[in-house]
Amino acid sequence: MHHTSWSRSTIIPIGSYNPQYGVMLSSPSILGRTGVVRVLEPDLDEEKRQALERSAQKLREALARAQRAVAVVG
Questions:
Q1: Is residue 3 part of a domain?
Q2: CA nearest neighbour of 31 among 53, 52, 65, 6
Q3: Which of 12, 28, 42, 52 has the least CB density, counted as fewest CB within 10 Å?
Q4: Distance (Å, whole) CA 74 – CA 64
Q5: What tens digit of pLDDT does each residue of 31-62 get?
Q6: Residue 29: strand pairing partners
Q7: pTM of this prediction?
């Protein structure tokens, strides 16, 4: 079990909603006593940025399919 000291900030990957991509992404974030203090945006080259956008698009599509399935069942 990992113990986090709340007397200082810790950088860990945290999944949170990213409005730029419209989905939740896991990003390195500064976690403090009150929760996420800041999300650290990685400096991506164009190829990696496009790959991240493709991944986000697949997540948006999967979410839309799940929402349609729930609407049909509900």
A1: no
A2: 6
A3: 42
A4: 15
A5: 888 888 899 988 999 999 999 999 999 999 99
A6: 12, 39
A7: 0.71
* Spatial contact of 60 and 24, defined as CB atoms under 8 Å apart: no
Note the maximum CA span of the chain.
48
For residue 20, give the CATH number of its domain. Answer: 3.90.110.10
Find the angle CA(21)-CA(56)-CA(59) to the nearest 5 degrees: 120
The string of pLDDT tens digits covering residues 11-22 is 999 998 889 999
Which residue is it, tokens 């080259």?
A: 45
Residue 55 lies in a domain: yes
Q: How many domains is the chain partitioned into structurally?
A: 1
Strand locations in 1-74, DSSP E? Answer: 10-18, 23-32, 35-39
Q: Residue 22 has which token pair? A: 């419209």
